[in-house]
Structures are given as C-alpha cells and as structure tokens.
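This part of the workshop introduces the protein records we will be handling. Getting from the letters to the tokens is the skill we practise here. The record below serves as our worked example for the rest of this section.

…
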Amino acid sequence: MLTSANGAAEREQGPGREHLDRLLNAAAQGDRDALGQLYHLTRGAVYAMALSVLKDPHEAQDVTQDAFVTVWQKAGSYKSQGSPMAWMLTITRNLAKMRLRQSARLGELTDEEWNAIPAQAPNVTPEDRAVLQDALEALSAQERQIVLLHASSGLKHREIAALLELPLSTVLSKYRRALEKLRTQLEGDDHA
C-alpha cells in the first residue's frame, strides 16, 4: 500500500510466505505446475525489480523469463528459513545487473516504460494508473524503486535494503519522503 508507512503496510500483500515456500519446494521436486503458480503470483514483482535495474522493458521481460528459469534450476538450493520473494528478487537483481554490465547502458525510465509494470491488483483502473503515474513522476528514481518494490512485492523495508544494498535507514527515509511526495501530489498541493 502506498498510503501507509505503519505496520499495515509492512504486511505482505498478495501471496503469503508459506504458500510461496511450498511452491518453491514443490518446484524443487520437479513440479511444473508449482512453478507456473509461482510465476503467476510473483511475475509482477520480478518484472518490477528487473525494470528498476535495467530501465528497458524488453530487457526486463527477458530477465524476468531468465529469472524463472533460474528459479526452476536452483529451487533445490532455496532454504525455507528465508523470504521466498527476497530470494527470487535477489536472483532477478543479479541477472539484471549482469545484463546491465554486458550491455553497459544506463538511462531514466520513460512514462511508457513505467506504465509497462503490470498491475498486481485487478481493481486498478486506467484512471487510477494515470493518477499514480503522475504522482510517481515526482519521485527520484531510487524513491520510485523502493516504493514500487514495496507495493508490488510486499517486501519489508529491511528486505528491500538488502536487495538494493542500501542501509535500512536510507530505505526508510526515502520511503517516508516518497510517501509524503505522493501524498502531496495526490492531494493536489504543489508546494512541498
């Protein structure tokens, strides 16, 4: 949720850890249906992570596919004590960084590229998406990445800090600052 920085926002949105854990363990046993379910439940968050690193929707789609191939191949090495989403996003981030190093490209995302991030909730209307896109433009690239990772994957701030290799205090302050900017944008106040 973008509107709350308290405990409610810290709760996982979407699939629970235990469910993802079971799916990963089933995939490790060769269950393709489990991998399909895992893909269906987490593809938006995986794509968002890839896009936030690569800043190219086509490259991000390729890395998303590569990430799920890697998840399938390495599911047996997943340890149930951690966060399954963080494990998958770490794979995605590493693949995206490797692709970025190979292509040596950097750049800012265009509006169309940010709009390519799939909506997790089926109740997101095109009007809501347009309002959200306008509000997200007020954020720095790193703030936008933190907010989108939190909103799309339900990761806790500590997990986002580990994924982005940032101090927790930096992630928390950027998240709070981003929420204030979003609140200002959504309320229509242009002075902040």
Remarks:
- The longest helix spans residues 32-54.
- The chain has one domain: 7-187.
- Residues 1-13 have pLDDT under 50 and may be disordered.
- The domain at 7-187 is CATH 1.10.1740.10 (Rna Polymerase Sigma Factor; Chain: A).
